[in-house]
């Protein structure tokens, strides 16, 4: 056998048959299909998780803001424009056209060199109709008043906290029972001090829609005024 014939024989023996090529192509296509399915499943899962996180972020931020304001509430005093009062229920707040659910003075104001305001600010929370055209839902707003020494109607900054809120309720605990109405500025009321805790209940969704379970948050208040405490004189 000549060298050229031997080389042709080895080349023929090392080549793939048509069946082997078809099997290889089929296996590669199967692996590619499985990889593609896994990739798109992971992509859909990532988008689902991202949408869930994005939708939950405003709610978590709103709850954190409400919690911080209530926990830092300033105890009421008999006099003093910076002490203010603590009120809850369907109340009117100075500088705000619509009724609010709660109004309090709190020490959550951010101090800035270019602004003359202190850390005590007046905060209110209430629902308003959505500003979006055709949207029948309500939005949760936080009203912030920094200038507590104003001799005229104070300016209130409205901050949008949460969209599509059908209801928000504030209940105050006096140590014995829960009550939706609290007013430390009312001299005829027995509630002249801060409540022991505040329960916040938020119902999401549009009016008339199928509602899910309400979101409930309990905020304890440690700060209490000593003006209403009972003192016992020792003999």
Write structural notes for this entry.
By secondary structure, the chain is an alpha+beta fold. The protein is built from two helices and ten strands, in the order H-H-E-E-E-E-E-E-E-E-E-E. A six-stranded antiparallel sheet has the order 5-4-3-2-1-8, with helices on one face. The protein starts with a helix and ends in a 15-residue tail after the last strand.
Count of helix runs: 2
Shape: elongated
Give the helices and strands as they follow along the chain: HHEEEEEEEEEE
- β-strand percent reads 25-35%
Overall helicity: 25-40%
Beta-strand segment tally: 10
> Main β-sheet: number of strands, strand sense, barrel status?
6 strands, antiparallel
Radius of gyration of CA atoms, rounded to a whole number: 33 Å
Q: What is the secondary structure topology, with strand pairs?
A:
Layout: H1 3-14, H2 18-71, E1 87-91, E2 100-106, E3 121-129, E4 138-145, E5 157-162, E6 165-173, E7 178-179, E8 182-183, E9 197-204, E10 215-220
Antiparallel strand pairs: 1-2, 1-8, 2-3, 3-4, 4-5, 6-7, 6-9, 9-10
